[in-house]
## 1
Amino acid sequence: MPSADRKKAPKASERLRRLLVVVPYLVQHPGTELTEVTRLFGVPEEALVEDLRLLFVSGLPPYGPGDLIDVDIQDGRVWVRMADYFGRPLHLTRSEAIALYVRGAALAAMSDVPEAPALDSALAKLADGLGPETLGELPQRIHAAGGGRSADTLEALRAATAGHEKIRIEYYAASSAATTVREIDPEEILYAIGNWYVVAWDHRSDEERLFRADRVRTVEPTGERFEPRGLAGVGRPLYTRGEADAQVRLLLSPDARWVAEYYETEEQLERPGGSLEVVMPAGRLEWAERLVLRLSGAAEVLGPPQLKDRVLELAGRTRELYG
């Protein structure tokens, strides 16, 4: 029987998300001290070294010296040299290009991105390559999903994070459709799956929580300073499941695959014709209802049965009203 105090192994998705953030930095800053990397990204040194060891066996057949990623750790410093195939021109699939466009467009919506000119140029090239017949209403959907981010709010969150200041926020949780007032100690601001997040200690629940910045309605400084706790930060799950959460299973058409880039998923399965089957946690089925209806037929509910029934009922009512 496994020991009760054995450390829980990190999920593969968490490790991948962490590597996607850390590795580009190490490539651009060869010879960085391990202690500096752990400080910058909030990753324990033991976990960081274990992640980097994965790169030794990462590459393409026939797995020769030029096909594998090279990682060198000496005297407390680390060097990462990418395999030869990273120097070849990148050829994206349609789904990959759409995913990049979704994330890039969401990031470009922020007013304080230093790389905005380069990002705008890349988005224009992606849009030109995909064409209007592929993009369709995707740009409008991205704007709707973003919910109108506030640059002032994000700046206030960044200031509190940099100054280690406890703040009082008014926060809207889409999964429960509830707005609450919380006092938090913000430790990190990160960008993932199309949104800015605040990694913070939540005094209301007395545990680490992740808050989407665009759902923070107000930020009120308290004037109180806090000592950073060294929260999980990069690599932590972007959604914390509750005991009462429902498991929603959807079949997304190719035009709706962007949903898997925007929302936390527990499982993704490729299906014929470019469709994608996803399993998503939902605090309230009402949230899933709104998402499915907004997709206008581009998503099929596979489960749970009560969600499928409710979506069909609401769709029927809509047809009666506007048919």
## 2
Amino acid sequence: MKDTTEPSGSTGGSPNGSTVPSVLYRERQWAPWYMWLAGAVLVLILSGQFALNRNVWWFVIPLLALGALVGWFLLWLSRTVVRVEQEADGTRWLLVDGANLPHTVVARSMAVPASARRNALGRQLDPAAFLVTHGWVQEHALLVLDDPEDPTPYWLIASKNPAALLDAFVPGQRA
């Protein structure tokens, strides 16, 4: 499956006159190809084990059932969508896993390269930080917050292209 990174600048309006926020950046974090391959191999091996010395239906039924189960699991792993939207008043929002963040509370931001991922997620990690991370996405975007009402010190978001994410969300602020 392919990563979907779509910068776009389309705005639209609904028939009742309200404006729809424009999507500036969108990225779906698909499970990598090797997980799909491993799932297919696992399904074939298990289905073959069920079918030993039996008729073909002992292969077909487990193949379909286990294939659907493994496919559902891999799609569930691929559910994360990172999106940046801009409202008509100019407010930009970062939307990840049901959480949203306005650009007005971000004090600093930077892209965390793959080489610094281990340190960012290791001992230096603040337990109050908001994390969205996957083992197959090596780079991250770090957003340090300046909001006295929110105890969250920063967001660390996995991204295939953190520079484009930060440029869409907080243009000109990326370190």
